[in-house]
Design goal:
The chain is mainly alpha-helical and 338 residues long. Helices cover 50% and strands 3% of the residues.
């Protein structure tokens, strides 16, 4: 029988060789192996898998469902070597994935968080937190992409940075505003003064200890900033997330286009490229019906209607028929009714 710890490594390595990133698998499955080892269980059973999946009692049913799905794939892999392993049924812990309503940060709230970051300790952590959160706010990057930036990827002289090995293995270039270039240049000089010999010399952003930050590290930083600025209160049924900074970036870009009178539909592919989306339809996930955005869209629609209407044409409401509407013709369908 293959030891479970080794089996986890083999399974994750095989799937990653096929092109899957398996970020959560790399965290959940080693915990599952330790969970079975602590109970002295060498085999996967449905009961144990279900117990492990629901261990974080404060988590949502969606997260329980995802944990069980990760274990199910691993159990299916092990069953090919040992038929005694049980594969949990797919209908356990059903959960409909719902889109979380994002919190849209205002510019003042972003500025408040950056100010709070400057008071963190040690100074290197403060500088890194301020620069990284600020970059997320003005670029729409994913947190993992910012953590993965190397110094060679940030070309300040050219005013751009390169995101390598992003989601689904894609890479892209992101143009930087001159103010962003200046802020990153200040950070780079401060970083080199505070940590001339980092643990990871290639990393652009560093933790307080001189290593490369990971997504969980930045998440802890954000939790502290959220508490320091009073944003840890539930305002949309839950607390604001770090990923909501990406949503807020999309909103600010759209507001800027509307205010400048740009063709929003023609610009959307550019926004999709910056965000790292293959299709503009993926970007629609980030479009929010914010009041200010709706007001600008309605104002543009009214101007378009007025410009396209011939002079003297009566209002659309006056052209509606006042008589009783005719009943739609019924279409006879063949076959048995369902």
């Amino acid at each position: 029988m293959i030891p479970l710890v080794q089996a986890v490594d083999d399974y994750v390595a095989m799937r990653r060789a096929l092109g899957y990133q398996l970020t959560e698998h790399g965290r959940v499955l080693p915990r599952f192996a330790r969970f079975l080892d602590e109970r002295g269980e060498p085999l996967i059973t449905t009961v144990l898998a279900l117990e492990f999946a629901t261990l974080p009692t404060e988590a949502s049913v969606v997260w329980w469902h995802q944990r069980l799905a990760i274990v199910r794939g691993f159990a299916r892999y092990l069953q090919a070597f040992d038929a005694r392993h049980e594969v949990p049924p797919s209908d356990l812990l059903p959960a409909a994935r719902r889109r979380a309503r994002p919190y849209l940060f205002s510019e003042a709230e972003i500025a408040a968080m950056l100010a709070a970051a400057r008071s963190m300790r040690p100074p290197l952590r403060a500088a890194s937190c301020e620069a990284l959160i600020g970059l997320l706010a003005v670029s729409g990057m994913r947190v993992s992409e910012a953590c993965g930036l190397d110094r060679a990827d940030v070309e300040l002289a050219e005013g751009r940075l390169t995101v390598r090995h992003a989601k689904n293995g894609r890479s892209r270039e992101i143009p930087l505003h001159p103010s962003t270039v200046a802020a990153l240049d200040r950070y780079a000089r401060t970083r080199d003064e505070l940590c001339p010999h980092p643990k990871d010399p290639a990393a652009f952003f560093l933790t307080g200890g001189g290593g490369r930050p990971i997504r969980q590290t930045v998440g802890h930083w954000f939790d502290r900033l959220r508490h320091a600025t009073g944003l840890d209160q539930e305002t949309v049924g839950r607390r604001a997330r770090l990923h909501d900074v990406r949503h807020s970036y999309v909103l600010r870009v759209l507001l800027g286009w509307y205010r400048d009178g740009d063709d929003v539909e023609a610009q959307l592919p550019r926004l999709s490229t910056v965000l790292g989306h293959v299709h503009p339809s993926d970007t629609f996930w980030y479009l929010e019906a914010a009041p200010e955005l709706l007001a600008l869209a309605c104002e543009r629609l009214e101007r378009t209607w007025e410009a396209s209407s011939p002079a003297g044409m009566p209002d659309v409401h006056t052209r509606l028929p006042l008589s009783r509407p005719t009943r739609p013709r019924q279409v006879r369908r063949r076959g048995r009714r369902r």
